[in-house]
Amino acid sequence: MILSLVGVVLLIVGAVCDIFGAIGMHRFGNFYLRLHAATVGTVGGKFYPFIGAGLIALDRGLLSVAGVAFLSAFTLLITTSVGSHALAYAAERAGVVKIEHNELGGGWDD
User: Fold this and answer.
1) S-S: 14 plus which of 19, 48, 53, 105, CB 3.0-4.6 Å?
2) Which of the four pLDDT bands, split at 50, 70 and 90, describes residue 89?
3) Alpha carbons 95 and 30: distance in angstroms, whole number
4) Tell me, what CATH number does 75's domain have?
5) Rounded mean pLDDT of the chain?
6) Residue 91 scores a pLDDT above 70
7) Domain membership of residue 55 as a residue range
8) Does residue 45 lie in a domain region?
9) Can you list the alpha helix ranges (DSSP code H) found in the chain?
10) Sign, Cα dihedral of 87, 18, 12, 46
């Protein structure tokens, strides 16, 4: 029972992350900020519900469903971060998106 309750809470957290990601995609004007909002929406909006579904499946004794949900969640967690980094790096290197102000100083090759 407690696993199902935690699972439902994680499903709700995932829905809230999806909403925040969608709002960020709409409101942010910069490519990098929109990429960040999309990543937050994807990671938070998909990772937490997968974990929640896995916990609900564990509570009901569906071990294979829980295993697939947990495996999918961790695969998504890793691949989304790598994909977002690759997109940002490629956009900066190709000069498609220029950074107006670099607070850290040097560039990529310094």
Assistant:
1) 48
2) confident
3) 14
4) 1.10.287
5) 87
6) yes
7) 2-94
8) yes
9) 2-27, 31-42, 48-59, 63-94
10) negative
| Number of domains the chain is built from | 1
Specify the amino acid at residue 27: R
**Which residues, 6+ apart, have CB-to-CB distance to 72 below 8 Å?**
50
- The tokens 């439902």 sit on which residue? 8
Cα–Cα nearest to 25, from 10, 13, 11, 42: 42
Give the global pTM: 0.77
Does any domain span residue 106? no
Pair 20, 41: CB distance under 8 Å: yes
pLDDT tens string 33-60: 888 888 888 888 999 999 999 999 999 9
Angle in degrees, 0-180, between the axes of helices 63-94 and 48-59, rounded to the nearest 10? 170
